[in-house]
Design goal:
The protein has one domain: YmcC-like fold, CATH 2.40.360. β13 and β14 form a beta hairpin. A 14-stranded antiparallel sheet has the order 6-7-9-10-11-12-13-14-1-2-3-4-5-8, with helices on one face. The N and C termini lie far apart (59 Å). It is globular. The protein is built from 1 helix and 14 strands; from the N terminus they run αββββββββββββββ. 39% of the residues are buried. By secondary structure, it is mainly β.
């Protein structure tokens, strides 16, 4: 009976974590990123990538600007900020601000501020596009609450998050595997999992949010995240699935996301809108 009670408590705690972590593209994580190992080696200060992104010839939207980090639908500029507000989600109304805090020739750091809590996420810039190296929105680093800490290290990353050019009708995928440790009320356990995200460029339309009215590209983003946490011989699987439509605007970024999701059988719907932005 005590074992079943503990398992129920752990399952509830994990559900709360993932309702918080996965219901938006920018989620709570630590102030410092965890070590990352990807399938493709990243450039180092002594090994600088110089190949430029592919440009469009007769189709698709070419990347704006110069360098590997140039992207038409996600402008990578140090100091760029986007402020969002979420309504209808499982954790209630909340706001957050994304800021690109550091840009390198082969990547950048994205920081998200939720009140007093900060989450950072590392990205790679490649000829094929921008690649999230951590759960991104969903967090591959540390999720902290009063009695819960989840530390995950990404082991493999494949695919691309935002291609250097996108045609209507294009489909692509981004995947990663992770493992690490979780502490619940001072009890440490292990955690393993994987995340798969499928993208589908649907078409163009006008969208209005508090930040303005824009001509946008609609992209369907379907995410499945599986994680298994073992604490004191208790093994608890948690699954998150979500289907969101995002509206991306050239030279601005994403301005709206709306969709539904489910975490361990608990369903929710959510809309996130851009309130304001500043791109240097």
């Amino acid at each position: 009976m005590e074992k079943n009670k503990n398992k129920s408590i752990l399952s509830l705690l994990l559900t709360i974590i993932f309702l918080t972590a996965c219901s938006s593209p920018a989620t709570v994580s630590p102030t410092e990123p965890q070590p990352i190992e990807t399938q493709a080696p990243q450039a180092t200060p002594t090994e600088i990538v110089t190949e430029l992104p592919a440009t469009s010839e007769g189709g698709g939207t070419p990347a704006a600007g110069e360098g590997l980090c140039a992207n038409a639908y996600y402008p990578v500029h140090e100091g760029a900020t986007w402020s969002y507000k979420s309504t209808g989600g499982p954790t209630g109304e909340y706001s957050f601000t994304d800021t690109i805090t550091l840009v390198r020739e082969d990547g950048f750091t994205l920081s998200s501020q939720f009140g007093d809590l900060t989450r950072t996420q590392e990205w790679a810039c490649k000829p094929e596009g921008l690649v999230a190296l951590q759960l991104g929105g969903t967090s591959a680093a540390t999720l902290n609450s009063e009695n819960i800490q989840l530390n995950l290290e990404v082991k493999n990353v494949s695919g691309v998050t935002y291609p250097s050019q996108i045609n209507v009708g294009d489909q692509w995928q981004h995947n990663l595997d992770f493992e690490g440790k979780m502490t619940v009320a001072n009890q440490e356990g292990s955690a393993t999992g994987n995340a798969q995200t499928n993208f589908n460029a649907l078409g163009n339309e006008s969208v209005t949010v508090p930040a303005g009215t824009f001509d946008a590209l609609k992209i369907q983003i379907d995410t499945t995240l599986n994680i298994n946490v073992s604490v004191q011989a208790l093994s608890v699987p948690v699954k998150f699935s979500g289907s969101y439509t995002y509206w991306f605007v050239k030279d601005v970024g994403w301005v709206k996301a709306s969709g539904t999701g489910s975490v361990s059988g608990t369903s929710f719907s959510e809309t996130i809108e851009l309130q304001s932005y500043n791109i240097p």
